[in-house]
Amino acid sequence: MKAEIIAVGTELLLGQIVNTNAQYLSRKLATLGIDVYFQTVVGDNPSRIKQAIEIARERADLLVFTGGLGPTQDDLTKDVLAAYLNRGLSIHQPSMDTIEQMFSSRGIHMVESNRRQALMIDGSSPIENEAGLAVGNGLTEDGTHYLLLPGPPREMKPMMEGPASDWLRSVLGSEEPLYSRLLMFAGIGESSLEAKLIDLIEAQSDPTIAPYAKEGEIAIRVSTKAPNETEATVKLDRTVEAIKQRVGEFLFAQEEITLEERVVQLLRSSRRKLSTAESISGGLLAELITGIPGSSGEYSGGVVTYTNEMKHKLLGIPMAQLQGEGAPGAISESTAVMMAERVRQIGDSDFGVSLTGVAGPAQAEGQPVGLVYYAVAQRGKPTAVFTGHFSGTRAIIRIRAVKAALYQLWLKLKEE
Amino acid sequence: MKAEIIAVGTELLLGQIVNTNAQYLSRKLATLGIDVYFQTVVGDNPSRIKQAIEIARERADLLVFTGGLGPTQDDLTKDVLAAYLNRGLSIHQPSMDTIEQMFSSRGIHMVESNRRQALMIDGSSPIENEAGLAVGNGLTEDGTHYLLLPGPPREMKPMMEGPASDWLRSVLGSEEPLYSRLLMFAGIGESSLEAKLIDLIEAQSDPTIAPYAKEGEIAIRVSTKAPNETEATVKLDRTVEAIKQRVGEFLFAQEEITLEERVVQLLRSSRRKLSTAESISGGLLAELITGIPGSSGEYSGGVVTYTNEMKHKLLGIPMAQLQGEGAPGAISESTAVMMAERVRQIGDSDFGVSLTGVAGPAQAEGQPVGLVYYAVAQRGKPTAVFTGHFSGTRAIIRIRAVKAALYQLWLKLKEE
């Protein structure tokens, strides 16, 4: 089944809010095996809403609306769709009772316009809204299905988790569900990964192989429709195995997690601790790790040493290492090694990770923008040090360098 | 001028990413006086991209595309639009040179597909991409304007801030221009700020007053269309003055900068330095400061002390302060004060800022989630300490706490 998501609301067109509903609904529909071919955003304007319906009606079997079910004059979705389908609107008494009850229980006078939230398009099924007052509508005409949901995510999501999904399953009938696997990669660029898989990607039909890149990470989703999980598993296993044979060394997870989440998982399961010493990345590595709930068990802390003095005072690195005639300097392999080793010792941790380099815009110590030395120190093992050349803006260089360091840490954790 | 934003990418239809580009572009186009009537999302499919172009062509004067300019087989935007307009595609040599230079400087073999990123539709103007390899395109045919931008926000936004806006202004031509002022607020919640301005906002017609909230910061844009800058200035000045009289104490900037950028500006102009000691915020404050180009002159560094041992070893805070019968504990006003003072001394800085508290999801030391103590130490002045109660997710609590601490630092810098 082909779906189109139509978000109604001028606030979206003004950029006042982000259309997170479209993402949530797209994911939710995918898990039901429904393909979303278009997402549309239209303002609170009757003729443009009608136009969006006409277009979507031509190219989709299912139109999922969010927004425009509220009490105000700007909430037009039901009115416009009813007019388009030549149907009337009637009060849904159970919803009306709920609205009246709510107002009387709170001792507030009910404004007449609140009755609008109980309206249903004639011939539609009610989609109950437990978190708000606007009842949802589901209806089918001439083989096209229409699902109307409110805009506020805290109302829309519970409806979609329950009664709206039930309604969708009932109209889906006998279509085959979609099964998929997610593969997460790091330590390799998007174009290099694709080059290694290009024949698989180009030959794909079933299962499909869809790569998408974030900074320093690449996800590949492998999907197939099948009558049941057993048949899906056979097809998915074959494709996933073929991908793993090519690029398995870069595969850090088979679920939707970040590289830092995977690293924290492995630290946790092996009861190890991490400390960090950052120069170029300025706390970004610490921030990514501590952004993970419960990471305090795996992370003792770290330092952000943006000056030579701080590297000396906080980490005890000799000033002669950092500056002066013939000194290796702050941006050097040997300083990266010292930073990683010292912070590991101070934190009494199993691993110490360090980064030093040039994020730009200007070069530093005569070294070019994008040059980064990073090191992984490990208790009882020799310290490994790496050189990276990263391109992009200051922000991109920082995130790529941090992901590269996390990748090396992940390799060590995986080997254990 | 009526615009439609067309985001190209199957990853959006699968719900793998949120279409934040549509919000950003909608706001940006509004500041140029361009009205967005529709936002469309379409997958990496040539016939559906073509269909989206045909529809948008009918209802808009300007089509702004994001996505589909990359090197892979899935990146089709230029190809499809060129075919639709019966135009060819040619290599843009300066972009090609940049791509080749990047690969050779990093000693990586350039995959042939990377050449695709230097393609331009014949007759279009190049829109330079300083943060990535895919060159943007701008062209006009039969009164319709087409602007092609890459999908990654880190590339698209700098283009839109510079060359893409320049191109748009050139095609806007003789329309009455929009003039606007941006007012940036911190230290006050969105609803409190709106409550103080509600009569101004409700009475607005010209200039318009549009508030936008981010975590810990609120922007208000005051806009008017006028034949010339002098007439616009009179109208804008009057409204801005009225807003300042109500909430001027929270106004940290009159340009699009973040609170941390403002703080770094003030540190720079007063030749002061900052150090940070973070527990709850785990490096986020350091990361925000060091994310600003050139901040190494204003920031010596800091510590992320996620354990009592690290607070003791790195900052010299006595263990008796942190744990044991009757100790104030790590999450206390007095620990926040010590952290700020010690890190200021270690960094030999003018200011030391600290944060300690509970980000959740679980409480800590018997203290509730969202409780944060933060302190600002200043050379030769008594240390100020604050208590905040923040709500939201772990990530939101962290960013709100950091912005609250930055606000207090900004107040001190402003007073000087």
From TrEMBL, chains A, B:
Residues 4-171 form the MoaB/Mog domain. Belongs to the CinA family. PANTHER family: NICOTINAMIDE-NUCLEOTIDE AMIDOHYDROLASE PNCC, NMN AMIDOHYDROLASE-LIKE PROTEIN YFAY. This is Putative competence-damage inducible protein. It comes from Paenibacillus glycanilyticus.
